[in-house]
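Protocol step 4 of 5: obtain the predicted structure for the target chain.
Materials: sequence only (see below). No template structures provided, no constraints applied. The aim of this step is simply to have a reference model before the mutagenesis design in step 5. Sequence pasted as it appears in the construct record:
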Amino acid sequence: MQNRLIRDIRFFLLSQVYHWKGFLFYKTQASVWMVYSLMSLVYSFVTISVIYEASSGIAGWNYYQMLFLSATSSIVLNVMMYVLDPDAINQMLRTGGMDLYMVKPYGRATIFLSATGRPSSLALIAGAFIMLFYAIANIGFNPLYFISYVVLMVLGTIAFVLFALMLTLLTYHLLKSRATMHSLLSFVEKTARYPLPVYGIMGQLLFTLVLPLGIASYYPAQAFLFGISAERFIEVVIVSLTISVVSYLLFNKLMQYYTSGGG
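Step 4 output (C-alpha cells):
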C-alpha cells in the first residue's frame, strides 16, 4: 500500500512537471510570436517611411494617408486571423479534428469560426489602432467620413472573413495543402497596404472581387480620407454583402462534400 502511494505521488509530481513545462513553453512561444507579429507592423511603418524619403507619394496619397491605409489593412487581416486560422482548420480537417465540433447544434460557419483563431492577433490589432490614431491626428477628423469608414470596414471585414473561410475549405478539397492559404494571405497582406490604383484596373478588380481585402481596407480608407459619394457608398455596400452571401452559400455547399479525415 505504501509503495503504491509513493508511486502514485511520484507519478502526480512528474505529471505536474510535464504540465508546467508545457505551460511555460506555450507562454514563451506565445510571447515570441507576439513580438514577431508586432515586428511585421513595425516593418510596414518603416517601409512606408522609406518610400516617402525617396519619393513624393504614391498615387496621390501622402505619408499619413498611406499609414492610415496600412493600419486599416492590418486591422482587417488580423481580425480575420483572430477568428479564423486557416492553417489550424486545414490540419483539423485532415485529421478529423473538426468532427467533434460538427455534432454541436450550431451553424457550420459559426463552428468553424469558433474552433480556431490566433489570440496573439489582438496585439497586432492594438498596434494597428495606435498607427491609425497617429495618422488621424495628422490628417484631421471628419465625423461623417468616419461613420462611412466604420460602416464600410465592418461590412468589408465580414465579407473578407467569410470569403477566407470558404477559400480555406475550397483549398482543402482541391489541394489538401496548408501552404496555399498561407501564401495567399501573405501575398494579400503585402499588396493591399498600397492604394489599389497603383495596380491598374485589373489589380483593383483582383483585390475587390477575387481576393477581397481591398473591399474591407482600400474603399473604407478612401471614404475617410477623401470622402465618398452616396452612389459609390451603396455600390461598395452591395459588393460587400454579395461577397458575404456568396461565400457563405459556397462554404455550405462545399461542406456537403466533406468527409472526415480521421476515418
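Step 4 remarks: The chain has a mean pLDDT of 79. Residues 2-54 form the longest helix (53 residues).
Proceed to step 5.
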